[in-house]
Model the fold of this input.
Amino acid sequence: MAETIGSSDTAAAFTDRTDAAPHDGEILLSVRHLRKSYGDHEVLKDVSFDVRRGQVLVLLGPSGSGKSTLIRCLNGLETIQGGEIRFKGQVIPNNSEKTWRRLRTQIGMVFQSYDLFPNLTVAKNIELGPTKVQKRPKAEVDEQMDRLLADVQLSEYRDAYPRELSGGQKQRIAIVRALAMNPELMLFDEVTASLDPEMVREVLELMLRLAKRHMTMIVVTHEMEFARRVADTVMFLENGVILERQSGDEFFTHPSTDRAKAFLDSMSPVGDE
Done:
């Protein structure tokens, strides 16, 4: 399949993962001492980490560990009670909605619930952000959209409505919609959680292709085989604390904490999340 995801400039920058060293890239996102609470319940406790350009960071942990809350903080969808988030070296003013509205054109996010507008066609869903928010010419956006839809093999659904699509198709369109904004960072929050098993593969294959093209990604997933294939770095959370952070290969072969070992055992084919 042609390597056409993203704008022409972005697509030209994508290379096979074996040809580059993502961990040597510049720090794109930096989080220091982040704290998040709901009332008296502290969900994230002193969380610090960096994401380099071209890196794929996978967040793993049991239910309730704070993974989804963390990824939502990184797109300004949750306010934080302390700490600092930097994007491309610039501190994001704490809980500044004005700043986050601007940054969401650079930090794309895809949810498990698709969030497509049901009253708009696929094309209108994809065009909305680039034309209304980024003020880009419709002809330019449409050209990019046609490339993206061809890449995910959904060109024939350009004028369809979301209700006419399967769950896997809706999720691929949601990813295309995010990519049409030409983001520098993509966030994925359990994007296969609501899909039937036969639809999971097509979405994960698309995400794996993005990773191979060095799209910078932070991924929350319960698909362990996919996580093993895609992760440069795994960060394991429990009770809002980072218990373990190491390369994907090391985490899946030699986890350093007993809790991570137990988690991996529970996620084996005979177990259940």
